[in-house]
Amino acid sequence: MKKLFMPALLAAALFAVSPASAQKKVTPGSEKAASQSYALQPQLSTLGWLGKKVTGQHNGNVQFKEGTVLVRGSQIVGGTFVVDMNSLKVEDIKEAEYNAKLVGHLRSEDFFSIDKNPTSTFKITSVTPLKGDANGNNATVTGDLTIKGITQKISFPAKVGVKGGVASASGTATIDRTKFDIKYGSKSFFESIGDKAIMDEFTMSFNVIAKK
């Protein structure tokens, strides 16, 4: 009798575990299917830039054109953002003629070649938890940034969250412009440029709002 009882008990235990195991199994594409797309709100989102040189610095902003944020549960898991490069502005120069001159230079082939590349894009490839950040960031965002038709992978800390049908992300990304063929005034390529040098890295500070 014991010989029959033990196999039967084992079979019952296996059948009892199977449903729970099936629920945990992740099939290809199932995570993507579970994500919801939130629409970027360009009028509520901001994107500022800061570039430094030996003798000072300049700052300004550009506008988001469109975008989506992918949300799974209460987590941001992806997203794609399009920036309207034609909206580029300089904020620190108040004199109109000098302001227009700098904007024109930034639009030129020396920098962003905006006539040929009217948009830049960023596509999130991963969002991973970040703990103990002094600035309150709770995630590391990694993605593909495309400027002047050149795509490079970048990572940066950010504060992200989803609440009440609104997804938000804020932070500052540091970008090496030379990786996007923006070499004008770079000491890495023009060693004798002296105090006319412009730093290779510039920063983009963002505050993104997307709604369900």
From TrEMBL:
Keywords: Signal. The keyword Signal applies. Residues 1-22 form the signal peptide. Transmembrane segments: none annotated. The keyword Signal applies. Residues 37-211 form the Lipid/polyisoprenoid-binding YceI-like domain. It comes from the Bacteria. SMART domains: YceI (SM00867). SUPFAM superfamilies: YceI-like. This is YceI family protein.
